[in-house]
Every structure is written in C-alpha cells, then in structure tokens.
C-alpha cells in the first residue's frame, strides 16, 4: 500500500498529471518481486491514470538513471537506494519532497528511526522504503555437513572452518566483485566489527581518514584471507550471481551477500533455504564492539 501511495502522489502532483505515469526500476528477472502485479493492481483501481513500469538490469540502471536525470528526462517515479546515493540526487535537485505523504500516512510510525533517516536530506523526506536487506553469509549446507562444520560465531571459528575447507579442496569464499560493490560488504563488516559502527559512519562522512589505524587493521584482516587463498580466484570477473551459483554448485562453501540471494533462487525447488543453504551473521571479531550488520534499503 505504501508503494501505491507513492504512485498516487506522482499521479496527482504537478500540473496536468493525468494519463501515463512512468515508473522506472531495477527489479527484473528472478528479483522482480511482484512489481508487475503491483502496477496492475494500481492501474485497475486508478481513474484516468496508467502507470507504465519499465525494468532495467541492475547495473545498467545505475548509469541509465543518472544519464536521464542529467538530461532532464527523469521518470515520474523511480527506484533507488537510501542513504548517500539518495542524498546525492536530492542535493542535485532531481527529487521532490514527500513530507506530506510521510505526515499524511503516518509513516514515521511504520519505519524505524534509522530507516526514516536514510530517506531524509536537509530535514525533508525524499523517498519511501519498499524493501530492506541484510548482508551476511549464505552457505551450502551439504558442504558444511561434509566437513562437520557449524555456522561460525567468532572470527577464530571462521578461520578454522576456512582452513578445513581449503585442506579438503573446497574454496571457502565466493566473491563476485566485477561491479565492485559486493566487495564493499567485506570492508564494511570488518571495519564496523573492529572499530565500531559509529567509526564506520564517521569514515563515510569524511570525519576519519583511510590511513587511520582502524582502517588499516580492517584491510589487514581482509588481506590475510586473500593471502591464505580463501577466496575463489575468479572474484574479479564474477558478479554476485556468479558467486551465488558457485555456492549453489558446491564450488565454494559460502558467500557474503544480501538477502536478495534468496530471491535469486526462489524458483529453484531443488535448492531451498534451511535445507540446502543456510545463513549466518558476520562473526564477532572483538567482543566489546557492537554486533552491527549492514544492508541496503530500496526506496521509491
């Protein structure tokens, strides 16, 4: 219903808002998530308005939407990512504030303070959340069972599991870093779990330097995993789906990715959550550091 409210807002706000409303998004293929059903439902109930939804491949969308915004050909509604990406397009003047929608729908009562803050720029609301993901390790349960492994809870347990897997001829980690952003999850978690989430936020805001000891330690931990050969060697040419498929086929034991992993395999009856693959949170490195996790928020 929140998504339909956003669509309705775009339909009636501004002069001459009738007829065709363009909705551009990046939910396609196995990750479409009911977008077509949602727009069909809206169109069946709307009067004098038709929402036309167009999906673009995820990586193509990133460049495509920036080009359209720069050329003055912005769609009426488009999906995006909360946080710094959203603030950048709001600062450039490409978005209309949605404060009336938030106030009228009581949305502050529906979302956490942190989620709402990710949709705010300069005191104004510019988006409505539609999905929130969590990043963690997805693992092949058959591979773990073969080596007698349980989901590790500490960094030491994770290193022990990796050593046993590597000795047995299985690559511990699959990483698809071709588009770069999946590799960021490793840095984010290593830093947040050692220096703390507030330090991580400060680094992203420019209040800390990338040559600080805290950052150097995070990169050192990551480099140690690489030196030990715990990552599949194809990480630079794989995307996140390639890494997921490597775990599916048992060529790697696990991958650090978001919960869209589940949507990617939703139609595969031979590969089911809880039975064929499992999930565990990023293990604890320093017990005194808060158990923080990350994950993107999709918005309209």
UniProtKB/TrEMBL annotation:
Q: Where in the cell is it found?
A: Periplasm
UniProt xrefs under Pfam families: SBP_bac_1 (PF01547)
Q: Where is it mostly found?
A: periplasm
Q: Which domain of life is it from?
A: Bacteria
InterPro entries per the UniProt record, alphabetical: Bact_solute-bd_prot1, SBP
For this record, an example GO cellular component is: periplasmic space
Family in the record = Belongs to the bacterial solute-binding protein 1 family.
Q: This chain belongs to which protein, by name?
A: Extracellular solute-binding protein
Species in which this protein is naturally found:
Fundidesulfovibrio putealis
Q: What is the lineage of its organism?
A: Bacteria, Pseudomonadati, Thermodesulfobacteriota, Desulfovibrionia, Desulfovibrionales
């Amino acid at each position: 219903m929140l998504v339909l409210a956003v669509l309705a807002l775009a339909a009636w706000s501004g002069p001459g808002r009738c007829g065709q409303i363009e909705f551009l998004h990046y939910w396609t293929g196995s990750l479409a998530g009911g977008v077509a059903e949602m727009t069909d439902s809206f169109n069946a109930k709307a009067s004098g308005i038709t929402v036309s939804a167009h999906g673009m491949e995820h990586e193509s969308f990133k460049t495509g939407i920036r080009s359209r915004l720069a050329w003055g050909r912005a769609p009426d509604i488009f999906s995006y990512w909360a946080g710094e990406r959203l603030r950048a397009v709001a600062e450039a003047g490409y978005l209309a504030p949605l404060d009336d929608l938030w106030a009228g729908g009581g949305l502050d009562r529906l979302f956490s303070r942190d989620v709402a803050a990710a949709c705010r720029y300069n005191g104004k609301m510019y988006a409505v959340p539609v999905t929130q993901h969590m990043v963690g390790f997805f693992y092949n349960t058959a591979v773990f069972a073969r080596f007698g492994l349980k989901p590790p809870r500490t960094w030491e347990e994770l290193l022990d599991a990796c050593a046993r897997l590597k000795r047995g001829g299985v690559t511990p980690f699959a990483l698809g870093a071709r588009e770069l952003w999946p590799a960021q999850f490793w840095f984010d978690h290593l830093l947040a779990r050692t220096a703390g989430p507030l330090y991580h936020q400060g680094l992203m805001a420019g209040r800390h330097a990338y040559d600080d000891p805290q950052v150097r330690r995070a990169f050192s931990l990551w480099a140690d995993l690489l030196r030990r050969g715990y990552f599949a060697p194809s990480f630079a040419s794989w995307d996140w789906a390639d890494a997921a498929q490597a775990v599916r086929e048992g060529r790697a034991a696990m991958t650090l990715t978001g919960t869209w992993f589940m949507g990617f395999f939703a139609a595969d009856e031979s590969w089911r959550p809880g039975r064929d693959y499992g999930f565990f949170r990023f293990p604890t490195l320093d017990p005194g550091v808060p158990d923080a996790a990350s994950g993107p928020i999709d918005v309209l």
